[in-house]
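## retry 2 of 3
previous attempt timed out at serialization; input unchanged, resubmitting
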Amino acid sequence: MQTIQRLIILFLCSSIVSKVLANVPMPPPEPSLRKSPAAWMGFGLIFIFFAVVVTINLMSSKRGHQD
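## retry succeeded, writing output
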């Protein structure tokens, strides 16, 4: 019987404490000082990948004369 009473008291106290803690104001988030990379860097990377793909496709295949 005492364990049930203790569990009920613990449940009631925990709900009260959680409501009190939920109302505590949170500090504002710190601003991020990291800057995102510039847009031209992304376009440059796309151009490099495109140039690599085109260069590989334009390379001559080294097939033998019997093919």
